[in-house]
Amino acid sequence: MATPLAYQASLPASPEWLNKGDNAWQLAAATLVAIQSMPGLVVLYGSIVKKKWAVNSAFMALYAFAAALIVWVIVGYRMAFGDRLLPFWGKAGPALGQRYLIRRAFLPATPHHYSDGSLETPMVEPFYPQASLVYFEFTFAAITVILLAGSVLGRMNIRAWMAFVPLWLIFSYTVGAFSLWGGGFLYHWGVIDYSGGYVIHLSSGIAGFTAAFWVGPRLKSDRERFSPNNILLTLTGAGLLWLGWSGFNGGAPYAANITSSMAVLNTHVCAATSLLTWTCLDCAFFKKPSVIGAVQGMMTGLVCITPAAGLVQTWAAMVMGVLAGSIPWFSMMILHRKSPLLQRVDDTLAVFHTHAVAGLLGGLLTGLLAEPALCRLILPVPGTKGLFYGGGVMQIVKQVVGALFVIAWNLVATTAILLVIAKFTPLRMPDDQLMIGDDAAHGEEAYALWGDGERYDATRQDTPAAAGGRDEAMRMRSVGEFNGARGVTVQL
């Protein structure tokens, strides 16, 4: 009798059930989503903060990406997409044994029978190796916790963050993922979350806001002025995030099919519409278009369409884009300034507005605009459709209940995790280190430019000015004038 390893060796490289096109697209989509985090959000975070926080902010994203992968393959994947432990949680277990090509990676081993004798809704059955699915779903878990980091940039103790990432993924993220995607009670009840409006964006927005409350605020000087150190790099990170969303929403059907094509088109239409709407509002109220505002509008459009991307027509994606560019704009620019709670909590990158508000908005709009024919292509519960297509008020009720569950769980779980961590290490860096920034946290600086506190030594140059190098002397004078304009003293 063949051993497992020998059996594996006897399998053909491409068995009959393997859909090569779907597998190739799933791996490509996973790579696009991974690029959103690394380097997308690493670059965006490192450039959108003050210079003194560039290294720390980028490292928080980099660390989270690496830590999330190890947690995911050891216990996370099975907790989110494995067998049922509780109605909202799967059984923990490793996803390290990829010796077998597993076709039925998503089918529960023990189907659940309800009290009326009916069988639970069948799960999705992708036609490619389990490894493809494990990696794809990891990229979603990683970006969720990295988005959450945007709320606590510029003051969270890096040691506390290193402990927080694995604990939050295990005790918070996996609950939402299993409940809505992996076979939990919200999945079988018919709550719609196509690609993470609730699981990813509402979760990261609420958890980030909660974490910002417990960690505490930045220094007063940082809160009053926190200008980006490099807006062009911010746009680079934002561009990677936008284009990577093709994999984010396009990979959600687990196949290269009609739904994935609709999702990709709707994603970009909604993002562009939201960006333009946000920019127009900035021009109307503040008289100038803001680059950072445009990035925020892009983000809210991408977030809003995520729970509906493959389930709505393109005209509906444009409607959602207008609302995504205006309602979060109102909550950030108007409501935030009038709310004592929002003013009290120092949410560094306004993750609450760009992700929690936009994610909730997208989930509710999905309950209104989900088109029946598109819903039949992918949703597990027969007859699911938006209110405007005859779905009834019950679909809106389901969307609201799903959102409330995600909000409540993230509030409680995030609070509990941070309070436990606080028993062992401070959540916030001390004020003297906050004054310094990266050098205090990591012993490194983002921009170690020549001239920062150094003295010019002509003897170290190939063509010293003292030896008649007039052009070199003039060049160094220009460097001195440039650095002097930046507040750097250079002696020639």
Give the topology.
Elements: H1 4-10, H2 20-48, H3 54-81, E1 84-86, E2 89-90, H4 130-149, H5 158-180, H6 185-189, H7 197-215, H8 220-224, H9 231-250, H10 258-286, H11 291-305, H12 314-338, H13 340-344, H14 351-369, H15 372-378, H16 393-422, H17 431-436, H18 438-442, H19 470-485
Antiparallel strand pairs: 1-2
Low-confidence sequence ranges: 99-119, 460-492
Strand order of the largest sheet: 1-2
Largest pleated sheet: 2 strands, antiparallel
In CATH's first tier, which class of the largest domain applies?
Answer: Mainly Alpha
Query: Helix segment count?
Result: 19
CATH architecture of the largest domain: Orthogonal Bundle
How many runs of DSSP E, i.e. beta strands?
A: 2
pLDDT averaged residue by residue:
85
Strand-residue fraction? under 5%
Structural class: mainly alpha
CATH topology of the largest domain: Ammonium transporter fold
Q: Percent range for helical residues?
A: 55-70%
Helix-strand topology string: HHHEEHHHHHHHHHHHHHHHH
Report the span from N to C terminus: 82 Å
What's the CATH H-level homologous superfamily of the largest domain?
A: Ammonium transporter AmtB like domains
Question: In angstroms, what is the radius of gyration?
Answer: 25 Å
**Number of individual domains:** 2
Shape annotation: globular
Pfam family, one: Ammonium_transp
Transmembrane segments: 24-46, 58-80, 133-153, 165-186, 198-217, 229-248, 254-278, 290-309, 315-335, 356-379, 399-421
Family: Belongs to the ammonia transporter channel (TC 1.A.11.2) family.
Domain Ammonium transporter AmtB-like: 24-447
